[in-house]
Write a structure and sequence with these properties.
Largest sheet: 5 strands, mixed
Organism: Climacteris rufus (rufous treecreeper)
Keywords: DNA replication
Number of helices: 15
Family: Belongs to the DCC1 family.
Strand content: 15-25%
Radius of gyration: 31 Å
InterPro entries: Dcc1 (IPR019128)
Number of strands: 18
Structural class: alpha+beta
Oligomer: single chain
Number of domains: 4
Shape: elongated
Pfam family, one: Dcc1
């Protein structure tokens, strides 16, 4: 391309009826370079916080397997990636000076000849999303840990997962994954993350609660050292400590490590053990057996079972059955569909534990219900049913 002269530039401005006084004196004359092609480069729009991450030398990672929608993760957040089309063509010009940079320079009437290295009609837009963590539990549940004596563990052909494996498979940031591993009470066995098989977990918990009973310790002060000494002959010491960490809060008093046991979590686990072998359980009978099954001095309450079990008040007598929130779909619409298949009409109190985890940042349960459910009154009580027919 022939280089433009100042006179040609001024003539072009005059033809376009533009006043040179309103423009910066410096002019960029653009030409396409030999390699300039569409699709060679991708643009990613970042919010200031993520930009700062990159500028500080940290990396952003795109995660997802072939059949999954890609997400982008920083150290502690997850973002959906969506392509946004633009009506203006975006040009990539190496060394291009912005108006601010030109203003800072002493005024000159020079012409800058720039080559366009590439162009694009779209860019990736990021939207903060919930980390997709359902798969984490699903992977670890393929091969739950049944203890050191389990024959199954020696012969199992199931995959086992290190932290590195999980980072490659789960669409969430490292911090979100590590936090979720704590939430689901996973533990490391020989370098692999495992979830305890439920019966084995209950066996360990039972050892601990029986020891607490026999020693008459308050649940708020269970000494680690004595637990390991007394129970170390029955089960590996790291498993005893893991169950204390799962069901208690660790603290140090006078140089000794103690655990304050979470009563609600113990009650919840015992309820699950009682309910998992019954399709439905007569509510009053269940409450009686449940209270008898928990350690001395612990009180059971139905509100300990939020997101684990559901009471059916419409049956006579009333019944209770296992319904675990972690077994429900992760997608919002699918979650509501499955809940409305289980029960046609829900009160807000009953449905909240089963949709709470779907709330995005600053979103309320009420907003989710407005979007996915229809509200009506039944015997003076507000109930919610599906907006669409459920097959």
């Amino acid at each position: 391309a022939a280089m433009r002269s100042r006179a040609e530039v001024d003539a072009t401005l005059q033809t376009a009826k533009l006043d040179p006084a309103e423009l910066l004196p410096t002019v960029h004359c653009l030409s396409f370079g030999p390699q300039a092609g569409a699709g060679e480069c991708c643009l990613l729009q970042l919010e200031p916080g993520l930009c700062a991450e990159l500028e500080a030398g940290r990396s952003l990672v795109i995660r997802g397997e072939k059949d999954e929608q890609a997400v982008l993760c920083s150290k502690d957040k997850t973002y959906d990636m969506k392509i946004a089309d633009t009506s203006n063509m975006l040009l990539f010009i190496p060394g291009c000076k912005t108006p601010e940079e030109l203003n800072a320079e002493p005024a000159s009437c020079n012409i800058i000849h720039s080559q366009i290295a590439g162009f694009s009609n779209n860019y990736w837009e990021l939207r903060r999303c919930r980390p997709k963590l359902k798969k984490l539990r699903k992977l670890l549940m393929e091969d739950p840990y049944e203890g050191p004596d389990s024959q199954k563990d020696q012969t199992s052909t199931c995959s086992k997962y290190t932290t590195e494996d999980l980072l490659n498979l789960i669409q969430a940031s490292e911090e979100e994954i590590l936090h979720q591993l704590q939430v689901i009470d996973a533990c490391k066995v020989e370098g692999y993350w495992r979830i305890l098989e439920f019966d084995y977990e209950m066996k360990l918990l039972n050892h601990v609660t029986q020891l607490i009973d026999s020693e008459s310790w308050p649940l708020s002060k269970v000494p680690l050292c004595i637990c390991l000494e007394e129970l170390g002959s029955l089960e590996p010491r790291e498993m005893i400590e893991h169950i204390l960490v799962s069901y208690g809060r660790k603290y140090v008093d006078d140089g000794e490590v103690y655990f304050e046991m979470h009563e609600d979590k113990i009650c919840r686990a015992i309820a699950q053990m009682l309910l998992q072998n019954a399709v439905k359980f007569n509510l009053s009978e269940f409450e009686e057996v449940w209270q008898q099954s928990v350690p001395e001095g612990v009180t059971t309450r139905l509100d300990q079972l939020k997101g684990l079990a559901l009471v059916d008040k419409s049956s006579r007598p009333e019944t209770i059955f296992l319904l675990k929130v972690e077994d429900l779909p992760e997608d919002n619409q699918e979650r509501f569909n499955s809940l409305f298949r289980i029960r046609e009409k829900w009160t807000e109190v009953d449905i909240t534990p089963y949709i709470q985890d779907l709330c995005a940042e600053k979103q309320t349960v009420g907003a989710l219900l407005t979007k996915y459910a229809r509200c009506s009154m039944l015997n003076g009580v507000k109930v919610y049913n599906s907006r669409r027919p459920i097959s």
